[in-house]
């Protein structure tokens, strides 16, 4: 039986699978920020020490539908968080939103603050980050390669809410679709 609909630690082959089907908004954002291809943006975290990288697996037919993680920044208490996905992730919105608080907590371990710069045109991402407790801290009018408006979105660990999220850790995998509910405090 093939396991479907879960999150697991990423492997490099996941980047090769996701890159060609990355959604247009994510492609536009990584191009505008640092002129990166989808493959380069997905592979780069594997080259960084102490990165946490996870893959979201959809159905058998969908395969890898997203990758996310965190990387240390030059300032020890700050971590850079990221998510890149295909449009197939939208087919699983309800469960994705339920699981997000748990995974943000996992990615934030070891950091006092987590952040990233988000293309201001990417309103779905901005809304989702605010749902997760990230706050817009600063607008950069001409950010990155594309010189487009980006927002610095940041979350402070000490401000994390006592959220409820589901998880079931088994062999370092989390089944995002049939988990038991537990507190992530």
Give the arrangement of secondary structure elements.
Elements: E1 6-9, H1 12-18, H2 24-34, H3 38-43, E2 52-57, E3 64-72, E4 78-85, H4 93-108, E5 113-119, H5 123-131, E6 135-143, E7 148-156, E8 164-166, E9 169-170, E10 173-174, E11 181-183
**CATH topology term:** Aminopeptidase
CATH architecture: 3-Layer(aba) Sandwich
State the separation between the terminal residues, measured CA to CA: 34 Å
Low-pLDDT stretches: 162-185
Tally the structural domains: 1
The ordered string of helix (H) and strand (E) elements is EHHHEEEHEHEEEEEE
Q: DSSP strand (E) fraction? A: 25-35%
Helical segment count: 5
The count of DSSP E runs of length 2 or more, i.e. the number of strands, is: 11
List the defining traits of the structure above.
disordered C terminus, 7-stranded mixed β-sheet, Aminopeptidase, two-stranded antiparallel ribbon, alpha+beta
Characterise the protein shown here.
- This protein has 185 residues and is α+β, with helices and mostly antiparallel strands.
- It has one domain: Aminopeptidase.
- It contains five helices and eleven strands.
- It has helices at residues 12-18, 24-34, 38-43, 93-108, 123-131, and strands at residues 6-9, 52-57, 64-72, 78-85, 113-119, 135-143, 148-156, 164-166, 169-170, 173-174, 181-183.
- The strands form three sheets. It has a seven-stranded mixed sheet with strand order 1-2-3-4-5-7-6, sandwiched between helices. Strands 8-11 form a two-stranded antiparallel ribbon.
- A hairpin with a 5-residue loop joins strand 3 and strand 4 (78-85).
- The chain is globular and about 45 Å long.
- The chain starts with 5 loop residues before the first strand and ends with a strand.
- The model is unreliable at 162-185 (pLDDT under 50).
């Amino acid at each position: 039986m093939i396991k479907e609909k879960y999150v697991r630690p990423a492997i490099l082959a996941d980047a090769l699978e996701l890159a060609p089907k990355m959604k247009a908004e994510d492609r536009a954002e990584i191009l505008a920020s640092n002129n990166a291809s989808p493959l380069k943006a997905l592979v780069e975290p594997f080259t960084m020490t102490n990165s946490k990288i996870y893959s979201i697996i959809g159905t058998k037919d969908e395969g890898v539908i997203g990758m996310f993680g965190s990387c240390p920044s030059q300032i020890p208490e700050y971590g850079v968080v990221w998510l890149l996905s295909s449009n197939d992730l939208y087919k699983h919105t309800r469960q994705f939103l339920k699981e997000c608080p748990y995974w943000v907590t996992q990615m934030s371990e070891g950091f006092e603050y987590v952040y990233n710069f988000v293309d201001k045109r990417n309103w779905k991402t901005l809304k989702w980050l605010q749902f997760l407790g990230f706050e817009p801290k600063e607008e950069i009018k001409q950010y990155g390669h594309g010189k487009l408006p980006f927002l610095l979105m940041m979350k402070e660990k000490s401000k994390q809410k006592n959220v409820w999220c589901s998880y079931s850790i088994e062999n370092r995998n989390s089944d995002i679709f049939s988990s038991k509910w537990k507190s992530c405090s």
